[in-house]
Amino acid sequence: MKNPSGPPPPSYTCFHCGKPGHYRKNCPAKGDKTFECAPRMKKSTGIPRSFLMEVKDPKTKEAMLTNTGKYVIPIINEAYASRKKEERHFLPEEPASSSSSDDPVPDELLCLICKELMTDAAVIPCCRNSYCDECIRTALLESEEHTCPTCHQTGVSPDALIANKFLHQV
């Protein structure tokens, strides 16, 4: 289409002034030195029509020109612009400041030495009580005769401790 003749199709827009109805070589603003060229519009080629939304103003951010001469923007851009606000009841709740007063930990899960929730629970063979593994090992090693803190039996080796698999699962 080196030398187009006749009127341009209705969808054609002049690349010089940005107005329809004439080709660039016949543009009325071509000789005007003060005229500022219209910015080139991106074409919407390759984007499905279902992903596009028509707009009236060609100066809309990211506006594109369709093959029918209408201005469109991608729907996803509009979705980002009018973002949905989350309602408070769908957001995660703030953690309670003192959950221990609401749900007390059962005594069976508390270490007899540190009085905290047992970590790596271990059973001592003499009296079959459960303690934190670190607490009972430290207590046995710090006592001169490896004495059990509950039943006071002497000679209890830290190697004889048994992992409490039931409390590990809890």
UniProtKB/TrEMBL annotation:
Biased composition regions of type Low complexity, renumbered to the chain: 93-104
Region (Disordered): 84-104
Gene Ontology process terms (BP): mRNA processing; protein ubiquitination; ubiquitin-dependent protein catabolic process
RING-type domain segment(s): 111-152
Domain of life assignment: Eukaryota
GO molecular function, one term: zinc ion binding
Residue span(s) of domain CCHC-type: 14-28
Classification via PANTHER family: CELL DIVISION CYCLE AND APOPTOSIS REGULATOR PROTEIN 1-RELATED, RETINOBLASTOMA-BINDING PROTEIN 6
Protein name (record): RBBP6 ligase
Gene source species: Nyctibius bracteatus
Phylogenetic classification of the source organism: Eukaryota, Metazoa, Chordata, Craniata, Vertebrata
